[in-house]
Design goal:
It is a single chain. The chain is of the alpha+beta class. The chain has a domain at 25-148: Beta-Lactamase. It is 69% helix and 15% strand. A four-stranded antiparallel β-sheet has the order 2-1-4-3. A hairpin with a 2-residue loop joins strand 3 (127-135) and strand 4 (138-147). Helix 1 (2-74) packs antiparallel against helix 2 (77-88) and helix 1 (2-74) runs antiparallel to helix 4. The longest helix is centred in the N-terminal third of the chain and has 73 residues, at 2-74. It starts with a helix and ends in a 7-residue tail after the last helix.
Length: 202
Amino acid sequence: MTTEKRLSKQSTPKFSMLKRISNFILAVCIVVIGVNLWFMHNKNANEWYSLESEQLGRSLAAQASRMLAGPLQKDDQESIENYVSTIETDSLVKGTSLYDQSGKTIKSFDENYSIIEQFRVLDQPPLIFVEDIIYDGKTIGYVKLLLDREAIIKHHKAFNRSQLVQTGLIMLLTAICAIILTRLFYKVRANYQFSDKPKSVR
């Protein structure tokens, strides 16, 4: 019995130390994974923002080009203004301009938004997209769209925030599962050691 008690006292500190080391390693792994996920999230968010802005601008410019082709060919100013008003109802569009096939301005609807002023005031260049206006296979003009960068960023941040919340919830769930599994392992180990103890013989 004396030998068993001595061995038990010697093994308990070792087990406690191993437990602390394993908990420390687990905590470090969780922190490292969390930091890596945060960096990956920011990188993917920036890439998504650039791609989304480009695709959105191209899509809106192509749509505007198709809408304005007929009225521009017929020089229907009323229809042109109605179509442009429809285009600018989109909160992401700041202004629209029309040009003929030689590049001469037909009508500009973005007088309140100087492109030069946008370059001078803002750290980032404005989002400008130009699309050919094609009618019956011939280029009859061009349409220029100026997009609102702040509105796109606001939309992007809302999406980015929801993705960040989802990532945080996944990390929290992973940490809870790791804690539960760790406690279960120690509980099973303690029960196993208790059942393996030799019974005393009287």
